[in-house]
């Protein structure tokens, strides 16, 4: 018999979002008439821009013609799309051949883990998007599960006490550092000075930063960096991942990209960009060409306007949720909520309560699904995350129910 991958035996039972979905199903089985509203997983709800959808539809139809048909695409993704990404998001900061098109940031993060293998030191913000931890566990880089985290992972608490920016001195030399800004789940968005501190630390300590910028389109404060490559030295120490999922509503369509600078090197001087090309061409066969046609349309004048409008819509939902969490009932219970207006999540602390307890209470009393903060890491305990992805009427109804919640 073949032995089970040691990573899996170490893994906490369920991935966070399916676990939330499982509990929701359990609840609905017991309360079939409950009108559940999800402010849980960050799943987009608004229809695609007509302009972007038309580009995909036209492309799909052209595939049925001899002139329009195409099979496998360019190695690193459609070159028109890569050039657009370079000029829209990285003017003067990244070249087309540093950009790799993919099926999304989560999948890229999982593939990046194969690039560094099981022997790498891992450090990450705590709380963090669960894929950084669970992916590290699967690949064998996380060490033993202590019941409150993994031995081989350096957790960097990001809490209200440190203004959600971590103390870096605990990070071991030559570590992979996962950093997400605007942050999932806290919403904290790093300033240019903070990113400079991170980059300087990485360069001095032989670290590589995996910078998750999946929510950069939500940044409305012009002074905040939208890419780590705005920071001096970042091309020597960072990989960036990003995605069309949230700004274009492509959570189902699937399209993202990574930026791997040519300056980035392994200890032996080998090019990370070259190895990443090898990983992508070996483990991946390119994003759907239809999705890539949508990506090209998303980055023209109309597409950019449409994406901005979608993001503004979700940000307004976030403001409504934040306002509700500032109501008397929450104040009396000492609840403190955080919403930066630069990301889609509202992060709220319920003192003296466990995250899953709050999750159950809100599900039971309001029929609203949230995401328990402890699922994002030990420092997320006592918090829950409210997602601003939802139809306006659902968000308003959820806010009404929440404002009547007795805590
Ligand atoms: C989240 O809810 O944290 C994310 O949207 C889920 C995902 O992107 O995988």
Overview of this structure, please?
The protein contains 14 helices and 13 strands. By secondary structure, it is of the alpha/beta class. A 7-stranded mixed sheet has the order 2-8-7-6-5-3-4, sandwiched between helices. A 4-stranded antiparallel sheet has the order 9-10-13-12. Helix 5 packs parallel to helix 6 (130-139) and helix 5 crosses helix 9 (272-283). The longest helix has 25 residues, at 301-325. The radius of gyration is 21 Å and the shape is globular. The model has no long low-confidence stretch (mean pLDDT 96). It binds D-malate (MLT). D-malate (MLT) is lined by residues 17, 41-42, 106, 129, 184. Residues 17, 41-42, 106, 129, 184 line the site of D-malate.
Helix content: 25-40%
Radius of gyration: 21 Å
**Structural class by helix and strand composition:** alpha/beta
Question: Largest sheet, if any?
Answer: 7 strands, mixed
Mean pLDDT: 96
So how many helices? 14
Query: Quaternary state, please?
Result: single chain
**Could you say which overall geometry the principal axes of the C-alpha atoms support?**
globular
Ligands, deduplicated: D-malate
Tally the beta strands. Answer: 13
The poorly predicted ranges are none
What is the element string, with H for helices and E for strands?
HHEHHEHEHEEHEEHEHHHHEEHEEEH
Beta-strand share of residues:
5-15%
Major sheet: arrangement of strands? 2-8-7-6-5-3-4
> Termini distance?
52 Å
């Amino acid at each position: 018999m073949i032995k089970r991958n040691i990573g899996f035996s170490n893994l906490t039972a369920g991935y966070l979002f399916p676990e939330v979905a499982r509990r929701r199903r359990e609840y609905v089985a017991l309360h079939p008439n409950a009108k559940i509203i999800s402010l849980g997983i960050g799943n987009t709800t608004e229809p695609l821009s007509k302009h972007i959808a038309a580009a995909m539809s036209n492309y799909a139809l052209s595939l049925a013609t001899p002139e329009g048909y195409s099979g496998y695409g360019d190695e690193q993704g459609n070159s028109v799309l890569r050039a657009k990404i370079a000029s829209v998001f990285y003017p003067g900061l990244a070249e087309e051949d540093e950009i790799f098109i993919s099926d999304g940031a989560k999948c890229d993060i999982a593939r990046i883990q194969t690039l560094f293998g099981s022997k790498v030191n891992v450090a990450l913000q705590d709380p963090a998007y669960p894929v950084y931890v669970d992916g590290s566990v699967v690949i064998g880089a996380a060490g033993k599960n202590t019941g409150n985290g993994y031995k081989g992972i350096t957790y960097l608490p990001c809490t209200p006490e440190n203004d959600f920016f971590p103390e870096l001195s605990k990070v071991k030399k030559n570590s992979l550092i996962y950093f997400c800004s605007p942050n999932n789940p806290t919403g904290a968005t790093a300033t240019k000075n903070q990113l400079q501190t991170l980059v300087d630390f990485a360069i001095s300590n032989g670290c590589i930063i995996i910078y998750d910028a999946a929510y950069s389109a939500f940044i409305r404060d012009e002074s905040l960096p939208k890419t780590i490559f705005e920071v001096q030295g970042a091309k020597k120490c960072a990989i960036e991942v990003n995605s069309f999922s949230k700004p274009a509503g492509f959570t189902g369509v699937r399209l993202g990209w990574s930026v791997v600078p040519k300056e980035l090197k392994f200890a032996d001087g080998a090019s990370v960009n070259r190895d990443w090309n090898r990983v992508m061409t070996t483990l991946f066969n390119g994003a759907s060409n239809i999705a890539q046609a949508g990506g090209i349309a998303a980055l023209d004048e109309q597409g950019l306007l449409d994406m901005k409008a979608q993001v503004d819509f979700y940000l307004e939902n976030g403001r409504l949720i934040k306002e509700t969490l500032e109501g008397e009932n929450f104040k009396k219970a000492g609840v403190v909520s955080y919403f930066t207006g630069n990301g889609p999540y509202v992060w709220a602390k319920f003192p003296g309560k466990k995250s899953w307890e709050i999750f159950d209470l809100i599900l039971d009393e309001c029929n609203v699904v949230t995401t328990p903060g402890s699922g994002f890491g030990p420092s997320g305990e006592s918090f829950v995350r409210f997602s601003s992805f939802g139809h306006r009427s659902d968000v308003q109804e959820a806010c009404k129910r929440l404002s009547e919640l007795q805590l």
